[in-house]
Structure formats: C-alpha cells, structure tokens
Amino acid sequence: MHAIEVDHLSKHFGTLVALNDISFSVNEGETFGFLGPNGAGKTTTIRLLTGISPPSGGTATIFGKDIAEETTAARKTMGIVHETSNIYDDLSAWQNLMFTAELYTIGRKERELRGKELLELFGLWDRRTERVHGFSKGMKRRLTLAMGLINNPRLLFLDEPTSGLDVQSNLIIREVIRDLNARGVTVFLTTHNIEEANLTCDRVAIINRGRIAAIDSPERLKSTIQSAQSVEVAFDRAAAIRQEDLRQLPMVSEVRKEGDKFRLFTNDPSVVIAAVMEYAQAHTTRVLSVNTLGPSLEDVFIKLTGLEVRTKGVSTVD
After folding, report:
1. Is pTM, for the whole model, over 0.90?
2. Where are the domains of the chain?
3. Within its chain, how far is the Cα of 220 from the centroid?
C-alpha cells in the first residue's frame, strides 16, 4: 500500500487552474519532495491531501483512505506543518503543544511524555514556560514542527519547513527529517529550495503551473541532462575577470558567476580547462581552483520549468 496515492487530481478557483490533472504516488517510509517555484501548486496540493480543501476532480488516498470521503480517519495518520504558523503567541510553548495534543485526543500522561521529548529534541525545553510571542522565527518554526509530531504520525506533511530560517534551525529540521525517515515515517515535503530537496528527498516531483514536469530521484533527474556539464573555476583576481571574455573561450556555451567562482557550461570540459589556463596566463592572473561538474538538480529545474532569468549576462532562478 502506498502512503499517498493521487489520481488525476485537479483544483480550480473560478477560471484559474491551480492543479491540472496530476497523478503520483508516495511510497510508505520515503521522503518525497514537491519542488516548484512560488505559485506552482505546492500548497494547493497539500491542502487537498490533508482534507482542508476539496478537489475539483480526481481522488487522493492516504494509506488507502479517501481523503474526501474518510477525512477524519485519514487525518488520524498524519501530522501537518503549514507554511504559515498555527501557534498561539499568547500561550507558552508547552501550552501550545498540550493544546495540539488534546485536539488529537491524546491522553494526559502520553502527551506530557511526548511533549517533553519533542521540546528537548528541538532545543526548546528550557523555554517551555515562556510565551511564544518572544520567540524568534526559527524557534517558532521548530515549535510548529513539534506540534505536527505530537500525535506520532505515520505521515508528516511539511510545507516549506525551512523557508527563511537561521542556519541552526535549518540544520535541526533537516536532521529531524532524516531521523523520521530512518524510523519509517513518510515525509511529504514542499519546497522551492532546490538544495534542500537534493539533500533530503528520496524522490522529487517537479511541479510548475499546476502540472508535474517530472518525478524521480534527484540523481536520476540529473542524469536526464548529462549534456549540461560544466567547469567551475576560481581566479585570484575575480573582480578583474570579464564574463564576456570567458564566454568567448572555445566550447563554452554559457557562463554563470556563482559567488567568487565562474561556472562555464560545455560539452567538452577538457578543452575548456586548457582554454581557462591559457586565459589566466594571458591576463596575468592565477587559477585558484578548477572543478568539472555534472548537471545539478538546479539545472534540471531550470530546464523543466524554464525559470531562467538573465540580468546583465548572469542566469538565476526565481
């Protein structure tokens, strides 16, 4: 049995088609990423899969239970962490957690034991009696995740869980996701953070404008565009290097500046490396590092969604 089974699911808001006949399944115990730009249909999908919003067409089942027809039974198996916080700022962290547990009708002894474990896990135990109003965004996000886990769910929905967080909170949440996955919990993760999907997910679905463009493991998705090889090079005087000069080197099809490095796309890295060395010598600069790279998940994302924006010769993803 699949944890999630989606069959020709659609959602319309008047004339706006938010989801357009999508179908996919999520295996029990895997971390499944729903990757797409803002407005692609990620949050709409979660709203349908959690029974918050009815579909305009198609069906979705959670562990075999139709989410539209057996909403209560399906929800008992899941935890939900929305992109927008559902925390009560005037309550303490402990009160928020206990209130959520009561909504799931968890007994007092069990919810207190579970609450202590979760607050310790997320580094919030020492702040449990403080009102959430004074918490940072990262602390609030960690508390929201703890609330989503209070019922010990078989399936956890995470909508943009690390968006805008500090490094510490980001690392904690990623580690918790890995731990949940190791314990057999299914995680459905929506994100527009490509690196997050690459590091965290067993499989990724790329969605754009309400349609699914591709579904596979990150590495298999990368292998679909093996032609997008590149050479990453750093010079000791990067500020003096002109991108237009690099673009004129033999076999270079595109140049991107990424931090203090330049990424030169090519079908023949060996030719480009030799040309880079000659260029450095001719311009009295030194190559600090050079690496050959295969295609990244970002490259796949750009190719499938067309979300490449050029500003003064630099390509970025919106």
Report:
1. no
2. 4-217, 229-293
3. 17
